Amino acid sequence: NFKSLAKIDRSICLSVLTLAAVATVVQPEQAAAVDLDFSNLVGPTNLADGFNGFNFGPGSSNATIDYLNVASGIDARVTATPFGTGYSLLGHLPNYSQNVGQPSGDTGFLYNAATPGQAGGLTYKFDLFNGGGTFTTPLNAQGLALRFLVYDVDGEPSQSEAVRIAKNSGLVGYQLGNTAQALTASEDANSYLFTGPGQNFLETDASGAAIFYFENTNSVTFRFEANTLASSPANNAIFSAIDGDLSLIGGNTSNFAPIVSTAVPEPFTIIGTIIGGTAAVRMRKKLKADKSA
After folding, report:
1. Is the pTM of this model over 0.85?
2. What is the pLDDT of residues 205-219, one digit of tens each?
């Protein structure tokens, strides 16, 4: 009966669609991440070591700074944009980690909360370009895998600290420290938020750090948030830094929990997979019954 071939079991469809709706988490693809090194700044710094009272090395007060050869054939532009009442950029810290006796190649920053009791922070955006120093041709994002160790997002009793990443930004997974006071993850309709424990930890302590994995994007934006209390000091400086090759921890992620995936599979891929399995068995049985009729 050929008419029966055109009728798909309603229960199969409902099962497929239900599974498609709930199966929204997959493991990130195991693409090799491109290691990024932020040590080759274009041009000189304009802030001497010790600016704002911190011996973090020389800095740049420019909103945008450029790095050459962050990886083979890749240049990077980094843009810092403060937001919130009384928040301002104090300076980028190129090659920060080497200046404080750690493995080279990290980029750090200082920003300031001038007025106590205000919410605000700093967005820190990475744009990747084809190498050559022109910063005109965006790097091909297809198949590109990146990872960033973001550290010193711990906070203090007088201020909270967190980093927010928008959904649909290329983020496919993250790892938080496996310590008792690690960052905590939450989400809303538009973003993932990673909140520090509210007390100071060493930069190399995973309690104030997270590793973020991105795929198929040549532009990554971190939104750092540091909300001060009414009792916070005026002109409160906040520091964080970013490692693009995990050299700060020697590539060893044993102090971090397993990867939590944020990647969402295509609905029709899920449907096709399920139909190709369990549902297909029921359809074959139906065809056999029709032939024998």
Report:
1. no
2. 999 999 999 999 999
CA distances from 104 to 96, 99, 242, 249 (A): 7, 8, 11, 12
Q: How far apart are CA 291 and CA 82, in angstroms?
A: 70
CA gap 262, 133 in Å, rounded? 34
* Residue type for position 234: A
Average pLDDT for the chain: 85
Residue 232's CB: how many other CB atoms inside 10 A?
19
Secondary-structure breakdown of the chain: helix, strand, coil percentages, each rounded to the nearest 5: 20, 35, 45
Residue 83 neighbours by CB under 8 Å, 6+ apart: 120, 121, 122, 123
Radius of gyration of the chain (CA): 24
Q: Which amino acid is at 171?
A: L
Vertex 243, ends 195 and 213: CA angle to 5°?
65
Sign of dihedral through CA atoms 40, 46, 50, 51? negative
Q: At 142, give phi and psi (nearest 5°).
A: -65, 120
How buried is residue 236: exposed, middle or buried, by Cβ count under 10 Å (0-12/13-18/19+)? buried
Please name the residues in contact with 180: beta carbons below 8 A apart, sequence gap of 6 or more.
Answer: none
